[in-house]
Structure formats: structure tokens, C-alpha cells
Amino acid sequence: MMKNTKVKVTTLLLIAGVLAVAGYFGQGWLRQQITIHKLLSDNKQLKEAITNLTTEDQIGYAKVIKQEKRDAKTFTTLRFVETARNDKLKKIVEKDYTFEGDIVHFDALIVKFSDKMVMDGRQRAMYLWRRVYSEGMAPQDGFPIESPGAEPARYADLLARLPIKHREMFWSNIWDLANDKNKLNEYGITAIYGNAIYSQLRQGLIYVFKISPTGQLYDEVVPDM
Asked: How far is Cα of residue 218 from the mean position of the Cα atoms in its chain?
């Protein structure tokens, strides 16, 4: 009888220990979820950062540095440049790519915020360059520009007031919300979607990339002086 009692007590203690450990980790998971929720729903510093997205709309440019024929086929080498938010002359990304053909697509992910998300009641948008590819390539075979989940250099100063763990949490989770309409509404995000623009590139021209406050990505062609 005494043995059975000891076994029962030991079993109960083990169960209690397992539940305590599970509860600890469960609370940790819950704390993380709450932090993510608060970051996107009522974080004042994040809202101030998003409001500051209106300061400018030019985000970079591309230009042809070489165009040549090889076995009767056209090959284009372009230079892609992303510029700083507050300094259009400062390059934060500069990469060269060579493609067969002269029609090139530039692919980006857009995060469009509702007017409820920002302080002055106007829509805002953020973007992340994904890849660049030619007309003869499948998009998935394109060359990467930036990696989803990593903090884009362009927004490093914008979110600088947020703790580093909050910034990492924002960039690693924001793209995963695209197909969850309920969470998008909850966090004041109108949409998360891809936007690709393309142009038939020619030497002597610069293709200036711009983004509107509502998330429309487009380019303007100007002479390369």
C-alpha cells in the first residue's frame, strides 16, 4: 500500500513538473506573440517611422553599362542602384547584372498601410526589392537583390529607434502576413503583394525607380548626362 502511494506521489510530481515546464515555455511563446501584436498594432515608434515614409518617392535607378551582340543575340549588362531615403546621391545597393536580351523585369514586395495605421491619416507603403530577371528567364531563376526577412539597408535609419529584437521581428514576420486577411486588417495593413515593372533597356538612358505613397512602383526615363 505504501509503495503504491509513493508511486502515485512520484507520478503526480512528475506530471506537475512537466506542466510547469510546458507552462513556462507556453508563456514565453505567448509573450512573443503579444510583442509581435503590440509592435504592429499600437507601437507609437513604428507608426512614427511609417509616417516618415512620405519624405521622398525616388528609390533608385538602373542604367545600361554595356549592350553587345553575341552570335546574333543581344546581351545587356545593367547597373542597378538603390539610393538612400534622404539622400538621392548616396548608394546603399549597387550591383551589376548581365542578361540575354534587352527587356528586364524588376520585382519588389510592397507593404501597403491603411490610413488608420499612421498618425496623419494618409496611406503609406514600404517595399523590398526581390530580384531582377530578363524576358527570357523564369522569375524564379532571376538574380536576387535583397533577401526577404533581412532588414533592408534603406530602412535601417527609419526603424533605428526600435529595439533590435523588434526590428528583426518586424522584418522576419511582415511578409508572412500576406495571405492572412484578418491579421492584415488587425494590424492596419491594406495589402502585401508583389509588383514587377519592366522596360526595354537602351544605352544612354537612366531608368529612375519611384514608389507612390499608395505603393505603386513605376519608373521614369531620363537621359544619362
From this structure: 17
- In tens, the pLDDT along 85-122 reads 778 888 999 999 999 999 999 999 888 877 766 666 56
Output DSSP code: residue 64: E
Helix axes 44-51, 2-42, angle to 10 degrees: 30
Q: What is the pTM of this model?
A: 0.73
**Residue at grid coordinates 526595354:** 200
70-89: pLDDT as tens digits: 999 999 999 999 998 778 88
The rounded distance, in Å, linking the Cα atoms of 26 and 3 is 34
- What lies within 8 Å, CB to CB, of 142 at 6+ separation is 105, 107, 130, 131, 132, 133
Q: Rg for the chain (alpha carbons), in Å?
A: 24
How far apart CA 47 and CA 170 sit, in angstroms, is 13
Domain boundaries, the chain: 2-42, 46-223
Q: Which residues contact 130 (CB under 8 A, 6 or more apart)?
A: 107, 108, 109, 142, 144, 145, 146, 148, 194
- Of 218, 209, 215, 195, which Cα lies nearest the Cα of 82? 209
* 19 compared with 163, residue with greater pLDDT: 163
Angle, vertex CA 60, rays to CA 50 and CA 138, nearest 5: 100
Interatomic CA distance for residues 151 and 155, integer angstroms: 7
Q: Cβ(212)–Cβ(125) under 8 Å?
A: yes
